[in-house]
Amino acid sequence: MRLLAIQVGSEGPAVAVLGGCRGPVERCRPGARAEALAPLVADALAEAGVGFGDLEVLAVSTGPGSFTASRAAVAAARALALAAGLRVHALSLLELAAETVRGTLPAPFLVLAPAGRGELALQRFAAGPVALGPIERLAPAAARRLSAGGEPVVTIDLEEWGEPVALRLASGALPLARAAVARHGRGVAALPGPAVRPLYLRPPDARPEAGRPLVVAG
After folding, report:
1. Which of 2, 89, 152, 192 has the most crowded Cβ, counting Cβ within 10 A?
2. In the chain, which stretches have pLDDT less than 50?
């Protein structure tokens, strides 16, 4: 399957291509802005020997994380999906972690990740992995209480948590691409481009200004 994966994280934008005649290809631009995505996609496709029209499906990381990064990745995936008539495997960071440990833990299990402002994101997964509910945003004390029920716990970048399965997910888009292929192989349906949304667990930090009149240049 010829797949293009798109990810914009704290380290910068990254893309990966699977299914090309030259094997897996990944391109990253550490420290770059989202504007680097377009040339990264073009370079990765050319290196993989895959034409834009040859792609069969897309993958994108939806968050949680930086509002700007999640929005940029999703906007790029939606635009490419619309242009090429493709569907998109949209994975959250927690779903990516669940895919990474698939088959290695008894189910159900919990996945925990930083959610910003000192909070944690928590989601429970059954075998598959299949999410058993939406992502919850919790204070660390509440997350510890929920995770004390005896279910295996997977933590992402939370070394101080002290649980037996602690992940530091590899940077770049190749893990995302491989997780999307695994989901596709299990029959998990990809989404139409307009249905893909960034994962926002809380409102943005920016606040509209109040009490100032709107001045229209005349």
Report:
1. 89
2. 218
What are the angstrom distances between the C-alpha of 22 and each of 16, 26, 46, 152, 179? 13, 12, 10, 39, 20
Angle made by CA atoms 91, 172, 83, in degrees to the nearest 5:
60
What was the pLDDT predicted at 174? Answer: 93
3-state secondary structure labels for all residues of the chain = CCEEEEEEECCEEEEEEECCCCCCEEEECCCCCHHHHHHHHHHHHHHHCCCHHHCCEEEEECCCCCHHHHHHHHHHHHHHHHHHCCEEEEECHHHHHHHHCCCCCCCCEEEEEEEECCEEEEEEEECCCEECCCCEEECHHHHHHHHHHCCCEEEECCHHHCCCEEECCCCCCHHHHHHHHHHHHCCCCCEEHHHCCCCCCCCCCCCCCCCCCCCCCC
CA distance linking residue 178 with residue 75, whole number of Å: 21
pLDDT digits (tens, 9 = 90+) for 76-121: 999 999 999 999 999 999 999 999 999 888 999 999 998 888 899 9
- Terminal alpha carbon distance of the chain: 56
- Report the distance separating Cα 45 and Cα 62, nearest Å: 22
pLDDT of residue 133: 94
* C-alpha dihedral (79, 85, 89, 92), degrees to nearest 10: 20
**Whole-number average pLDDT of the chain:** 88
Dist CA 183 CA 129 (whole Å): 9
- The pLDDT value given to residue 150: 85
